[in-house]
Structures are given as structure tokens and as C-alpha cells.
Design goal:
Blueprint (H helix, E strand, L loop, with lengths): L1 H14 L11 E4 L8 H9 L2 E4 L10 H11 L3 E4 L15 H14 L5 E6 L1 H12 L4 E7 L10 H18 L8 H9 L6 H8 L2 E2 L19 E2 L3 H11 L14 E7 L7 H10 L3 E6 L5 H4 L1 H14 L25 E4 L3
Parallel strand pairs: 2-3, 2-4, 4-5, 5-8, 8-9
Antiparallel strand pairs: 1-3, 6-7, 9-10
Helix pairs in contact: 1-9, 3-12, 4-5, 6-9
InterPro entries: AB_hydrolase_1, AB_hydrolase_fold
Pfam family, one: Abhydrolase_1
Protein name: AB hydrolase-1 domain-containing protein
Length: about 350
């Protein structure tokens, strides 16, 4: 009886989201302030933009300033994308890495990109990895931030804490949308589930007290007296807990291009097993360790941006010259890292 009740709840949640094998991804484009002067580089970068893929409950606005820095320092257009059920992209089921990859591929096809460079964080890292493995001819090179191509059942508790904190706001706190302190109250209520301030901050970006501009396309009911999340939290609950920590069958798939992984030394996302899987699927990968938890993008913003820019500038050509120019970052508003170390994973 109890199992049947759970099944009905899950089926009911799925039924509220329309089914779509592919969705059109919302995006922002960050153009570099200065383009490269050499013809060969200009031609390469017109057709090889950087796609920046956010983590769970992130969106294309989350790290917009960082992406502008990356665009300027690499002289490369940077597209920040909203995954399905995030930001301004449509709400749809299913929600797994195969469909996220299909959405990314469809985005590239829509924009006629022959080659792209990928940057993915957390959930976005796995989606980007699978894109590189499934469509190696599409991907020039990639940076993957704090995730690995393996099943990670130990992370389900992490996902449950996210969901519990957000459901508590919707179902228990029920903060009135006209309350002048609605965001502060929501932050306080989430502390019992998520003591990490950076994680709460990233979730609170999705909390609103008025309908967004594309609310007519959302499955969320904004016609209430209470604050709401932009994401369909109740409908996504089962999918988030069961899918985000998984990894599809990629046995035998390899991406031979240049890749760089950024690992948080205090994060549980890249284990020894994860490193082995990385080298199995990405034999030309390097790994940089940073003294950080999983929230690297907030905890070490200057370091991760510098690593990304160094990597793409070094590999601007398929066979970079020995005297490849590395950008002087002092003019871009961020510092060289002081506590990170780079290790060759191979």
C-alpha cells in the first residue's frame, strides 16, 4: 500500500511536466570587448564559441560577470545556457543526462556551430562530459568543474538537502510575497538544511515574489500570495534525487581532445574512482586541485576563471606553438591563484 502511494505520487509529479526529447535552451551571449587581430584566430573563434553550462538550480545569470571576464581574456564569445527546468528554458520531463546532452547538441545545431568549447560545473560538468563523449567531433576542448563520469550514490543526501530546503520554503514557511523581508526569512529557514551560505545564495537566486517575464510558459503557479521558486520543485523532486548523481552507460566511449578538470580538495564529487573514470574516458585530461568545497565558483572565483582562460588560450590552436601567448590577467580584475596546484592526471 505504502509503495503504491509513493508510485502514484511520483507518476502524478511526472504528469505535471510535459514530455520533450529536446527543448530550446534560453541563453545569454557575452561578446569579448576586443577581438583577436590575426585572421586565423578570428575565423577559429567565430565558429568555436565557449558554452558555459551551470550546475543544479543555477542559471545563465549565475556567473555572468565571470563569463564576461572569460570572453574578454580569451577573445571568445561565451554563451551561458539555461538547462531544462532552469532559468528561462522550458519545463519538461525527463530530466537526465541523455536529454540534457540532446538539448546541448540541438542548441549547437540551431546556431550552426561546427565546433564548440565547453565549460561545465557540477550537473553541467556531467552534461558537458557526455556531450564530448557522444559528439567528439563537435567539441574542440573542455573544462569540467568538480564532477566525474561515474555513478555517485553517496551524493543523494546532498540532493535531498537541496530539495528539502526548497520544499520547506514552499510548503512550511509560506512567506507572503509582499513581506519586505521575504528573502531574509527564506535564507534563515534554509539554514537548518544547508549551513553553507554560498549554496543557499545560489538557491535563493531562483526564489521570486512576482511572476517572471516568461511566466506563461512556466509550469509553476505564480498566481498565489506566497513566494515561489522559478523551478518546478515538486515535479522535479524524484528526478533530482534519482538522476543527478547517476551516470549513463558510456563503456568504450572516449574523448581524445584536450580537457581540464578542476577539483575541490574538500569536495566529495571527484573520488579516486572518479579520477580513474576520468582517465578512462578522457585520456588527455589534466586535473587542477583547489582548496575548496564543491562551491568552487563562489569560493575561488579568481582561480577557476584564470584556469579556464589559461587552458583555452594555450589550446587556441590544435597544435599550440611553444611560445603560445598567455594573457596578462592583471587588467581583467582577478588575481593569480595562490593555493591551487595543477597535476597531470596522465
Amino acid at each position: 500500500m505504502f509503495a503504491t502511494k509513493i508510485l502514484r505520487q511520483q507518476v502524478g509529479a511526472f504528469s505535471k511536466l510535459p514530455h520533450a526529447n529536446e527543448v530550446k535552451m534560453a541563453y545569454d551571449l557575452h561578446q569579448p570587448s576586443v577581438s583577436l587581430q590575426t585572421n586565423i584566430n578570428n575565423e577559429n573563434h567565430k565558429s568555436e564559441p565557449i558554452l558555459f553550462i551551470h550546475g543544479i538550480f543555477g542559471n545563465k545569470k549565475s556567473y555572468a560577470q565571470d563569463c564576461k571576464l572569460i570572453a574578454d581574456a580569451t577573445h571568445t564569445p561565451v554563451y551561458t545556457l539555461d538547462l531544462r527546468n532552469h532559468g528561462e528554458t522550458s519545463h519538461a520531463a525527463p530530466f537526465n543526462y541523455d536529454v540534457l546532452t540532446a538539448d546541448i547538441k540541438a542548441f549547437c545545431d540551431e546556431h550552426s556551430f561546427d565546433k564548440v568549447k565547453l565549460v561545465g560545473y557540477s550537473l553541467g560538468a556531467k552534461a558537458s562530459m557526455l556531450t564530448a563523449l557522444k559528439y567528439p567531433d563537435l567539441v574542440r576542448s573542455a573544462v569540467f568543474i568538480d564532477n566525474a563520469p561515474i555513478n555517485q550514490p553517496h551524493l543523494k543526501g546532498f540532493m535531498k538537502s537541496y530539495i528539502k530546503s526548497m520544499k520547506y520554503i514552499l510548503d512550511e514557511s509560506r512567506i507572503h510575497k509582499n513581506d519586505k523581508q521575504w528573502k531574509e526569512k527564506a535564507n534563515d529557514d534554509m539554514k537548518k538544511f544547508l549551513p553553507n551560505g554560498n549554496l543557499r545564495k545560489n538557491l535563493l537566486v531562483n526564489l521570486v515574489n512576482k511572476p517572471p517575464k516568461n511566466s506563461e510558459e512556466s509550469t509553476v503557479n505564480f498566481d498565489t500570495d506566497y513566494i515561489q521558486f522559478l523551478n518546478p520543485i515538486h515535479e522535479m523532486e524524484h528526478m533530482i534525487i534519482e538522476e543527478v548523481a547517476t551516470w549513463p552507460d558510456t563503456k568504450g566511449l572516449k574523448y581524445e581532445g584536450e580537457t581540464h578538470f578542476i577539483r575541490g580538495l574538500k569536495s566529495p564529487f571527484i573520488t579516486k574512482q572518479g579520477v580513474a573514470a576520468i582517465m578512462d574516458h578522457f585520456p588527455n585530461a589534466d586535473i587542477t586541485d583547489l582548496n575548496s568545497n564543491h562551491d568552487i565558483l563562489d569560493d575561488r572565483p579568481g582561480e577557476y576563471v584564470r584556469i579556464i582562460c589559461d587552458f583555452f588560450n594555450l589550446h587556441r590552436y590544435q597544435n599550440p606553438p611553444k611560445d603560445a601567448n598567455i594573457v596578462n590577467y592583471s587588467g581583467y580584475g582577478f588575481q593569480q591563484p595562490t593555493n591551487g596546484s595543477t597535476v597531470a592526471a596522465n
